[in-house]
Amino acid sequence: MAAVTEAPPLAPTPAPQKKPPRKRGRWMPYLLLLPGLLWLVVFFALPVIYQASTSVQTGSLEEGYQVTWHFATYWEALSEYWPQFLRSVLYAASATVLCLLLGYPLAYLIAFRAGRWRNLIMILVIAPFFTSFLIRTLAWKTILADGGPVVGALDALHVLDVTSWLGWTAGDRVLATPMAVVCGLTYNFLPFMILPLYTSLERIDPRLHEAANDLYAKPSTTFRKVTFPLSMPGVVSGTLLTFIPATGDYVNADLLGSTETRMVGNVIQSQFLRILDYPTAAALSFILMAAILIMVTLYIRKSGTEDLV
Amino acid sequence: MAFVNWLKRHFVVIAGLLTLAYLLLPNVVVTVFSFNNPKGRFNYEWQEFSTDAWRDPCGVSGLCGSLSLSLQIALWAMLGATVLGTMIAFALVRYRFRARGAVNSLIFLPMAMPEVVMAASLLTLFLNMGAQLGFWTILIAHIMFCLSFVVVAVKARVMSMDPRLEQAAQDLYAGPFQTFLRVTLPIAAPGIAAGALLAFALSFDDFIITNFNAGSTVTFPMFVWGSAQRGTPVQINVIGTAMFVVAVLLVLVSMAVGNRRKRQRT
Q: Which Pfam families does this chain map to (chain A) (predicted)?
């Protein structure tokens, strides 16, 4: 604070007429950055380091923990919880693909076909956010309830026979199966896919569509050769915005799933808050962070849009 | 055949509207079940129509307390994140300084990290410091993860601003402070407001980070989570429905006002 109050008198110091903005400019950016960055360093970056150190500690709650460079924790955590890791990646990837398939038509509709309904549909896409996502996730318990209309219809169409055979559902139940969890994840992160898709679709010049049409391209060819490539930035940021939070999520797996659908988030949560095995929990969380950073870096490099962020 | 052609032509519209229905279905269920009179402790099966819960929304112990706590935390987190984030955004757009890349990645990383990782690592910090988990640790955590979103929102607006407007103000003998207050701030205001609203919404609805760092303090999402284990009162649906209706009404009113102003100008 002292630095801030000292800043104004700097202006009338000797030779202010020559380059006053520069004099001011030298300290200003650091003063503006300092409080916010300090917050992020202390409460975001430092904790990551603390967590890394916790993961190589041994000891117990009663006697306290010491850093012993016990890297075996990582090995033990991975060998015990690899199914949960695998499940997290699989569920999150399925939800991301579903979000893309479901979200693309809606984003396209808002961008090109909605006309004067555009604002209304946009509000309807964002509106669910106004109700707490936990309440909305609990509503899926009602929608997918055993013997309810949705499950009944799927059963009558013999969809459940196929999904049961694939292991996505169990018998005539949808709740407490992988399908319910993926359905919940898809639902929860769908707006994060639609909004970036819409932003990138909306920027496309409609005359490009007309040009493609004039050059005898079929609608499907226009989509494949013009629209979709131009919407790639939206596809990339949309998939990242759904995949990353979906991998770490434990709410859907807990509310809509069973012990057979536990994801790595569930393990971290219970190790931290119930079992109080901090080193294992920290190691799991660290592995998750590293895995996501590696996957995201590879993905961004592969999709060739590094100027995304 | 005509039907198939029709289906082909309107494929995007039909698929889009189906997705919209998928997005809105849970809200419909939440609203309908706010008028339910459940038999057991859980409100998952339809029994009979009743307006009991609407007449007594605070009838469940702890519900309205948690709601007001969540509102308080969201307001303070909004304030803190907006002030800190706006300062960073201005610094990033307006000034040259060293280590810009490092600053950018420090702001980007919290958005690219699963919440559970941030939550768990922050908890290890608090445990190591021996901090008392509660209101303050929740607030610290919320400001931390809202900050980056405010920076992004404000930055977009400040970047699209015409720098000549500020030069004009200075040519007209406005001091730096006056220029900022009367030219820069009003132009940046929509971006700051968008960032603030986003921060409020993110903080109010946050569960995972709060779950780790709240100790025994119960925010509204924590209350809903707890009730999913113990029994879901109808009042939860009432609050969910009321929030939805109020927010949609606010958006519609603000849009109507905006349209009217636009028409008056032209």
A: BPD_transp_1 (PF00528)
pLDDT band at B9, cuts 50/70/90?
confident
State chain B's mean pLDDT as an integer: 91
The answer to whether the Cβ–Cβ distance between A40 and B110 falls below 8 Å is yes
Smallest Cα distance from A40 to chain B, Å: 6
Is there a domain that residue B43 lies in?
A: yes
CA pair distance A186, B139, nearest whole angstrom? 29
**Which residues does chain A have within 8 Å of residue B247's beta carbon, measured at their own beta carbons?**
127, 130
Residue range B196-247, pLDDT digits in tens: 999 999 999 999 999 999 999 999 999 999 999 888 999 999 999 999 999 8
Q: Closest chain A residue to B70 measured between Cα atoms?
A: A132
User: Which range marks the domain in which residue B244 is found?
Assistant: 1-60+233-266
Q: 């080193």: which residue's tokens?
A: A279
Q: A308 — contact with chain B (CB < 8 Å)?
A: no
pLDDT for A166 beyond 90: no
Exposed/middle/buried for B217, CB within 10 Å: 0-12, 13-18, 19+? middle
- The correct CATH number of A78-308 out of 1.20.1440.20, 1.10.3720.10, 2.60.120.10, 3.30.70.100 is 1.10.3720.10
CB interface of A with B, residues 196-235, below 8 Å: none
Interface of A with B in 62-101 (CB under 8 A): none
Average pLDDT estimate for A27-50: 92
Same domain assignment for residues B50 and B69: no
Helix count and strand count (H, E) for chain B: 13, 0
Same domain, yes or no: B120 and B55: no
A33 in reach of chain B (CB within 8 A): yes
Considering the domain architecture, whether residues B43 and B139 belong to the same structural domain is answered as no
Mean pLDDT of B15-30: 95
Distance CA B138, CA A255 (A): 23
Yes or no, beta carbons of B221 and A109 under 8 Å apart: no
Please state at what angle helix A46-55 crosses helix A278-303, rounded to 10 degrees: 120
